[in-house]
Amino acid sequence: xxxxxAQDAKRDFWNKIAGRYxxxxxxxxxxxxxxxxxxxxxxxxxxxxxEIGCGTGGVAIRLAPGxxxxxxxxxxxxxxxxxxxxxxxxKVRFVVADTVQALDGGPFDAICAFNILHLxxxxxxxxxxxxxxxxxxxxxxxxxxxxxxxxxxxxxLYPALRIVKLFPxxxxxxxxxxxRAFVDAGFEIEAExxxxxxxxxxxxxxRKMTMPVD
Length: 214
Ligand SMILES: C[S@@+](CC[C@H](N)C(=O)[O-])C[C@H]1O[C@@H](n2cnc3c(N)ncnc32)[C@H](O)[C@@H]1O
Prior knowledge:
With 214 residues, the protein is an alpha/beta fold. It is built from eight helices and seven strands; from the N terminus they run ααβαβαβαβαβααββ. The chain has helices at 2-23, 29-42, 58-63, 77-84, 99-102, 123-132, 152-163, 175-184, and strands at 48-52, 69-74, 92-96, 108-114, 134-143, 187-193, 203-208. Strand 4, helix 6 (123-132) and strand 5 (134-143) form a beta-alpha-beta unit. Helix 1 packs parallel to helix 4 (77-84). S-adenosylmethionine (SAM) is lined by residues 10, 14, 52-55, 74-76, 79, 98-99, 114-116, 119-120. The site of S-adenosylmethionine (SAM) has 17 residues, from helix 1.
Protein backbone atom coordinates (compact mmCIF):
# COMPACT_ATOMS: atom_id res chain seq x y z
CA UNK A 1 0.00 0.00 0.00
CA UNK A 2 2.78 2.41 1.03
CA UNK A 3 4.70 1.39 -2.10
CA UNK A 4 1.71 2.27 -4.27
CA UNK A 5 1.30 5.68 -2.62
CA ALA A 6 4.97 6.42 -3.15
CA GLN A 7 4.67 5.41 -6.82
CA ASP A 8 1.56 7.63 -7.21
CA ALA A 9 3.44 10.58 -5.68
CA LYS A 10 6.29 10.04 -8.13
CA ARG A 11 3.89 9.84 -11.07
CA ASP A 12 2.21 13.08 -9.88
CA PHE A 13 5.59 14.80 -9.87
CA TRP A 14 6.24 13.86 -13.51
CA ASN A 15 2.66 14.60 -14.59
CA LYS A 16 2.92 18.08 -13.08
CA ILE A 17 6.21 18.97 -14.73
CA ALA A 18 5.51 17.29 -18.11
CA GLY A 19 4.62 20.56 -19.88
CA ARG A 20 7.73 22.34 -18.60
CA TYR A 21 9.88 19.27 -19.38
CA UNK A 22 8.62 19.25 -22.96
CA UNK A 23 9.24 22.98 -23.39
CA UNK A 24 12.81 23.03 -22.11
CA UNK A 25 15.40 23.54 -24.82
CA UNK A 26 18.06 20.85 -25.27
CA UNK A 27 21.12 21.95 -23.29
CA UNK A 28 23.72 20.62 -25.73
CA UNK A 29 22.43 19.79 -29.21
CA UNK A 30 25.73 18.43 -30.64
CA UNK A 31 26.08 16.06 -27.65
CA UNK A 32 22.46 14.89 -28.07
CA UNK A 33 22.97 14.30 -31.79
CA UNK A 34 26.20 12.38 -31.13
CA UNK A 35 24.38 10.18 -28.62
CA UNK A 36 21.55 9.50 -31.08
CA UNK A 37 24.11 8.57 -33.75
CA UNK A 38 25.78 6.10 -31.42
CA UNK A 39 22.43 4.65 -30.37
CA UNK A 40 21.31 4.28 -34.00
CA UNK A 41 24.54 2.42 -34.76
CA UNK A 42 23.80 -0.09 -31.97
CA UNK A 43 20.39 -1.00 -33.40
CA UNK A 44 19.47 -3.25 -36.36
CA UNK A 45 16.56 -2.86 -38.77
CA UNK A 46 15.04 -6.12 -37.45
CA UNK A 47 15.16 -5.09 -33.78
CA UNK A 48 12.16 -4.95 -31.45
CA UNK A 49 13.01 -2.10 -29.11
CA UNK A 50 11.49 -1.19 -25.76
CA GLU A 51 12.12 2.18 -24.17
CA ILE A 52 11.31 2.71 -20.50
CA GLY A 53 10.77 6.20 -19.08
CA CYS A 54 10.51 7.65 -22.60
CA GLY A 55 9.29 11.06 -21.39
CA THR A 56 7.97 13.12 -24.27
CA GLY A 57 9.23 10.67 -26.88
CA GLY A 58 12.05 12.53 -28.63
CA VAL A 59 14.44 9.58 -28.88
CA ALA A 60 11.73 7.14 -29.99
CA ILE A 61 10.43 9.41 -32.74
CA ARG A 62 13.91 10.00 -34.14
CA LEU A 63 15.13 6.40 -34.09
CA ALA A 64 12.05 4.22 -34.60
CA PRO A 65 12.27 4.47 -38.42
CA GLY A 66 15.53 2.48 -38.28
CA UNK A 67 14.14 -0.57 -36.42
CA UNK A 68 11.27 -3.05 -36.81
CA UNK A 69 9.23 -1.65 -33.90
CA UNK A 70 9.77 0.71 -30.98
CA UNK A 71 7.53 0.55 -27.93
CA UNK A 72 8.06 3.71 -25.92
CA UNK A 73 6.68 3.59 -22.38
CA UNK A 74 6.35 5.94 -19.45
CA UNK A 75 4.26 5.81 -16.28
CA UNK A 76 3.18 9.45 -16.66
CA UNK A 77 0.04 9.83 -18.79
CA UNK A 78 0.89 13.53 -19.26
CA UNK A 79 4.32 12.72 -20.70
CA UNK A 80 2.80 10.10 -23.00
CA UNK A 81 0.04 12.48 -24.14
CA UNK A 82 2.68 15.02 -25.20
CA UNK A 83 4.63 12.30 -27.02
CA UNK A 84 1.52 11.03 -28.82
CA UNK A 85 0.69 14.55 -30.04
CA UNK A 86 3.96 14.74 -31.99
CA UNK A 87 4.22 13.55 -35.57
CA UNK A 88 5.72 10.07 -35.54
CA UNK A 89 6.08 7.24 -38.02
CA UNK A 90 4.14 3.97 -37.88
CA LYS A 91 6.93 2.05 -36.15
CA VAL A 92 6.56 3.77 -32.78
CA ARG A 93 3.88 3.08 -30.20
CA PHE A 94 3.53 5.08 -26.98
CA VAL A 95 2.18 3.22 -23.97
CA VAL A 96 1.45 4.36 -20.42
CA ALA A 97 3.24 1.75 -18.31
CA ASP A 98 5.65 1.66 -15.40
CA THR A 99 8.95 -0.14 -15.82
CA VAL A 100 7.49 -3.42 -14.51
CA GLN A 101 4.40 -3.45 -16.79
CA ALA A 102 6.46 -2.27 -19.78
CA LEU A 103 8.72 -5.30 -19.65
CA ASP A 104 5.81 -7.73 -19.84
CA GLY A 105 5.79 -7.51 -23.64
CA GLY A 106 9.29 -9.04 -23.99
CA PRO A 107 11.57 -10.41 -25.18
CA PHE A 108 13.12 -7.36 -26.83
CA ASP A 109 16.33 -7.12 -28.84
CA ALA A 110 17.22 -3.84 -27.18
CA ILE A 111 15.93 -1.93 -24.18
CA CYS A 112 16.61 1.79 -23.86
CA ALA A 113 16.58 3.50 -20.47
CA PHE A 114 17.49 7.18 -20.65
CA ASN A 115 17.65 9.11 -17.39
CA ILE A 116 15.40 6.65 -15.56
CA LEU A 117 17.48 3.98 -13.78
CA HIS A 118 18.35 6.40 -10.95
CA LEU A 119 14.60 6.96 -10.47
CA UNK A 120 13.46 3.37 -9.96
CA UNK A 121 12.87 2.04 -6.44
CA UNK A 122 14.75 -1.20 -6.91
CA UNK A 123 17.68 -0.94 -9.32
CA UNK A 124 18.90 -4.57 -8.96
CA UNK A 125 15.33 -5.87 -9.41
CA UNK A 126 14.73 -3.64 -12.43
CA UNK A 127 18.00 -4.73 -14.06
CA UNK A 128 17.18 -8.40 -13.42
CA UNK A 129 13.76 -7.90 -15.01
CA UNK A 130 15.33 -6.16 -18.01
CA UNK A 131 17.84 -9.02 -18.35
CA UNK A 132 15.03 -11.60 -18.36
CA UNK A 133 13.14 -9.70 -21.04
CA UNK A 134 16.02 -9.30 -23.49
CA UNK A 135 16.77 -11.79 -26.23
CA UNK A 136 20.08 -13.67 -25.80
CA UNK A 137 22.88 -11.10 -26.20
CA UNK A 138 20.32 -8.30 -26.35
CA UNK A 139 21.39 -4.78 -25.44
CA UNK A 140 20.52 -2.48 -22.58
CA UNK A 141 21.40 1.05 -23.67
CA UNK A 142 21.14 3.62 -20.92
CA UNK A 143 22.05 7.03 -19.63
CA UNK A 144 21.86 7.39 -15.86
CA UNK A 145 22.48 10.21 -13.43
CA UNK A 146 25.12 9.24 -10.87
CA UNK A 147 24.02 11.90 -8.42
CA UNK A 148 26.46 10.94 -5.67
CA UNK A 149 29.31 11.90 -8.03
CA UNK A 150 28.08 15.50 -8.37
CA UNK A 151 30.03 18.20 -6.52
CA UNK A 152 29.09 18.54 -2.86
CA UNK A 153 27.51 22.01 -3.26
CA UNK A 154 25.07 20.61 -5.83
CA UNK A 155 24.26 17.54 -3.76
CA UNK A 156 23.61 19.83 -0.79
CA LEU A 157 20.84 21.55 -2.77
CA TYR A 158 19.03 18.29 -3.47
CA PRO A 159 16.95 17.99 -0.23
CA ALA A 160 15.72 21.59 -0.58
CA LEU A 161 14.84 21.07 -4.25
CA ARG A 162 12.90 17.96 -3.29
CA ILE A 163 10.92 19.80 -0.64
CA VAL A 164 9.83 22.48 -3.14
CA LYS A 165 9.10 19.71 -5.67
CA LEU A 166 11.66 20.83 -8.21
CA PHE A 167 13.49 17.52 -8.09
CA PRO A 168 12.15 13.94 -7.99
CA UNK A 169 12.96 11.19 -5.53
CA UNK A 170 16.13 9.56 -6.84
CA UNK A 171 18.92 7.21 -5.79
CA UNK A 172 22.26 8.74 -4.88
CA UNK A 173 24.28 6.43 -7.11
CA UNK A 174 27.99 6.46 -7.82
CA UNK A 175 29.31 5.37 -11.21
CA UNK A 176 31.11 2.43 -9.61
CA UNK A 177 27.84 1.23 -8.06
CA UNK A 178 26.04 1.57 -11.39
CA UNK A 179 28.72 -0.49 -13.18
CA ARG A 180 28.58 -3.15 -10.49
CA ALA A 181 24.77 -3.29 -10.67
CA PHE A 182 24.95 -3.99 -14.43
CA VAL A 183 27.54 -6.72 -13.98
CA ASP A 184 25.71 -8.29 -11.01
CA ALA A 185 22.52 -8.46 -13.11
CA GLY A 186 24.34 -10.46 -15.82
CA PHE A 187 25.44 -7.73 -18.26
CA GLU A 188 28.80 -7.07 -19.83
CA ILE A 189 29.55 -3.37 -20.30
CA GLU A 190 30.54 -2.94 -23.95
CA ALA A 191 30.87 0.82 -24.07
CA GLU A 192 30.72 3.73 -21.69
CA UNK A 193 30.76 7.26 -23.04
CA UNK A 194 30.07 10.77 -21.90
CA UNK A 195 28.08 12.92 -24.30
CA UNK A 196 28.29 16.54 -23.22
CA UNK A 197 29.87 18.15 -20.22
CA UNK A 198 28.47 15.95 -17.43
CA UNK A 199 30.66 12.97 -16.49
CA UNK A 200 28.01 12.15 -13.87
CA UNK A 201 25.52 11.21 -16.61
CA UNK A 202 27.23 8.33 -18.44
CA UNK A 203 25.84 6.55 -21.49
CA UNK A 204 26.36 2.82 -21.10
CA UNK A 205 25.87 0.03 -23.64
CA UNK A 206 25.54 -3.30 -21.81
CA ARG A 207 25.07 -6.71 -23.40
CA LYS A 208 23.07 -9.52 -21.82
CA MET A 209 25.39 -12.40 -20.99
CA THR A 210 23.85 -15.84 -21.10
CA MET A 211 25.15 -18.83 -19.20
CA PRO A 212 26.71 -21.49 -21.39
CA VAL A 213 24.48 -24.58 -21.52
CA ASP A 214 26.35 -27.84 -20.70
C1 LIG B 1 14.23 12.42 -16.36
S1 LIG B 1 12.83 11.95 -17.31
C2 LIG B 1 13.65 11.23 -18.73
C3 LIG B 1 12.80 11.27 -19.96
C4 LIG B 1 13.54 10.86 -21.23
N1 LIG B 1 13.93 9.47 -21.17
C5 LIG B 1 14.75 11.75 -21.40
O1 LIG B 1 15.88 11.27 -21.26
O2 LIG B 1 14.55 12.96 -21.67
C6 LIG B 1 12.29 10.50 -16.45
C7 LIG B 1 11.05 9.91 -17.06
O3 LIG B 1 10.86 8.64 -16.44
C8 LIG B 1 9.51 8.48 -16.10
N2 LIG B 1 9.48 7.56 -14.95
C9 LIG B 1 9.97 7.77 -13.70
N3 LIG B 1 9.82 6.66 -12.94
C10 LIG B 1 9.20 5.74 -13.73
C11 LIG B 1 8.77 4.41 -13.52
N4 LIG B 1 8.92 3.80 -12.33
N5 LIG B 1 8.19 3.74 -14.56
C12 LIG B 1 8.04 4.36 -15.76
N6 LIG B 1 8.41 5.63 -16.02
C13 LIG B 1 9.00 6.32 -15.01
C14 LIG B 1 9.00 9.88 -15.82
O4 LIG B 1 7.61 10.00 -15.99
C15 LIG B 1 9.80 10.72 -16.82
O5 LIG B 1 9.10 10.86 -18.03
